[in-house]
Write a structure and sequence with these properties.
Layout lengths: L9 H6 L16 H15 L6 H8 L3 H4 L6 H13 L10 H19 L15 H13 L7 H31 L4 H15 L6 H8 L11 H23 L1
Length: about 250
Amino acid sequence: MELDSAGVPANIAAAWGLRERPGKGPKPGLSLDGIVQAGIRVAAADGIGAVSMSRVAAEAGASTMALYRYVRAKDELLELMMDAAIGDPPPLDPDGGWRAGLTAWAWACREVYLRQPWTLRVPISGPPATPHQLGWMDAGLAALADTALREEEKLSIVLLFSMYVRNEATVAVDMQTAVEAVDSNLDEAIATYGKLLRLLVEPARFPALARVIEAGVLDRADEPYEEFVFGLERILDGVGLLIAQRAGS
């Protein structure tokens, strides 16, 4: 890992503006922010796989070599794009309680992913360390500030919510992409899947699954957000039990 003179990883230093910006070059108006926005436009139009230094340079109206004066590598560019894309977390109601706060936090995080699905494809290269990533982490922790939880428990809970939201959003995006690829929709896809399982599942071999099928669970697609809400509520229930336990100890 490349470090700057202060021991900060190079990509993180760039995100925090700790690296010296280049002086005026041959391309008037070129800036780090402009390069990052050009990368976001490429990713939004054609996916993260289309993001390359040469493609982003063309989008920014500059040469590839000019980009390297601002961004050292593609991985660094992706980190900067991700931080810019997620932006600041929405303000949470300080009087709403921890459950309402975490619920709002999770929905807002999910909305970011679904609005910009390319962000789900950015590789996770390390723990959160860019300005907006830490802003989201701080907002999640703030929702738990008035509970009796230990500080390490608060952090673990925020990371748990983050992983849940990211995974659920990934599945939602992938499912939607898959059904659109065959000119279908989720209702038709679930109905087809249910019919397939009725042909494949033998009650003697898969008794529990057979009961699910016979109950008609797979005869229709879930209502929008139904699975997300169910999982979110169960995690919140578990957090509530831990908070009550800590408060009583």
